[in-house]
Specification:
Elements: E1 5-12, E2 17-18, E3 26-27, H1 31-36, H2 41-44, E4 46-55, H3 62-77, E5 82-86, H4 92-102, E6 109-112, H5 125-137, E7 146-150, E8 153-156, E9 161-162, E10 171-172, E11 180-183, E12 186-189, E13 210-214, H6 222-230, E14 233-238, H7 249-258, E15 261-265, H8 283-288, E16 292-293, H9 299-312, H10 316-326
Parallel strand pairs: 1-4, 1-5, 5-6, 6-7, 13-14, 14-15, 15-16
Antiparallel strand pairs: 2-3, 7-8, 8-11, 9-10, 11-12
Helix pairs in contact: 3-4, 4-9, 6-7
The protein binds aspartic acid.
């Protein structure tokens, strides 16, 4: 039986990191090195491995993601059933969402990495790579956009979060759960996720500067005011369902007068509210002052979405509609409305 063609690109990350002595580990292995270290992988798929970068996740940027999208599109044009991107786990929750927003193909784009280095006792990289390739080759993964596969679980890019510094089970999908599990070399999907319409990839050039500001106990608003003066947009991670101290409400008004301000939650799970609390600095107050509620999108994902929307140059009402649809607090058309469902 012929094996599905799967293209795999490495950007670096712990999964590629080696070292000796006291200098610590750093990215060194190539995509071909990674593939050759996984037992059974050659039986699962016909692999084409490419090294796009050898960077830690912390140093990846929008330019790397653009290269990644171009490589992935070229791979599916050349016949790949799916593609796998290997990278540092530190930024997967952001990069995977960027890729998901702009991945205009039915073939699955699967992102994976490792929490332990190849030299650790019990590295998780080979198992993650195997599960990612299985997921990319799986026909049931088609049409799901970008997926994150770690620890034999499959996550939707728009939900996944890294919530542990070192555990192999560091990735979770708060609220709605994982999409599926890899079991005995097959993916078993149990949760559906309808894709949101794909956004066009903005023209190359400097990406908008979007600040992510988390409020905190006794916040004086200095950082928010600075961010509003220096950036093209702000994501404000508020308390609970989207609150800041009353003393910051005026700073939020000043910020929304300058740039789009998206109001997310710093809690890490759940949706912002829109019509519950009425005190100064509450979500109702901040929305009345022009803040855009993020709904179920967390602050990191909100920052990615706002950056792409600003790069596309869409008007404010469109930004509001996109957050309403993608954050699931409203129904409405989106920038690239292709008839997709508005489900969470
Ligand atoms: N700890 C990270 C990783 O899991 C390091 C990185 O993101 O490069 O890959």
């Amino acid at each position: 039986m012929s094996r599905p063609l799967v293209a795999l690109a490495s950007l670096g990350g712990t999964i590629t990191m080696t070292g000796s002595g006291t200098g610590g580990v750093s990215p060194s292995l190539t995509a071909a090195d990674l593939v050759s270290a996984v037992p059974g992988l050659a039986d699962a798929a016909d692999l084409r491995a490419t090294t796009l970068a050898t960077s830690p996740g912390a140093s990846l940027g929008t330019a790397d993601m653009r290269r990644c999208l171009a490589w992935a599109a070229e791979s599916v044009r050349a016949g790949a059933a799916g593609v796998v991107v290997v990278q540092g786990t530190d930024t997967i929750e952001e990069t995977a969402y960027f890729l998901d927003l702009h991945w205009d193909h039915d073939e699955p784009l699967v992102v994976t990495g490792a929490m332990r280095t190849p030299q650790a006792a019990g590295p998780d990289g080979p198992a993650n790579l195997y599960a990612a390739v299985i997921t990319a080759a799986e026909p049931a993964s088609r049409g799901l956009g970008a997926l994150v596969v770690m620890n034999d679980t499959v996550h939707a890019a728009r939900r996944v979060r890294k919530c542990h510094t070192s555990a192999p089970q560091a990735f979770v999908s708060p609220g709605f759960g994982v999409l599926g599990h890899v079991v005995e070399g097959r993916v078993r999907y149990g949760n559906a996720v309808a894709r949101h319409p794909v956004l066009p990839l903005p023209q190359e050039g400097p990406h908008p500067r979007v600040a992510m500001v988390e409020t905190c106990f006794d916040d004086d608003g200095g950082l928010l005011a600075y961010a509003a003066a220096q950036h093209d947009g702000i994501v404000l991670a508020g308390f609970g369902v989207g609150h800041v101290p009353a003393a910051l409400a005026g700073t939020v008004s000043a910020a929304t007068a300058r740039v789009p301000v998206v109001l997310a939650s710093r809690t890490g799970a759940g949706s912002t509210a829109r019509e519950t609390y009425g005190f100064a600095g509450s979500e109702r107050d901040l929305i009345a002052r022009g803040a855009i509620p993020a709904g179920f999108l967390d602050a990191r994902k909100s920052r990615i979405l706002l950056g792409s929307l600003l790069a596309l140059g869409v008007p404010h009402e469109r930004i509001l509609a996109e957050f309403g649809a993608r954050g699931a607090w409203a129904q409405g058309p989106t920038v690239a409305d292709s008839g997709g469902s508005e489900s969470v």
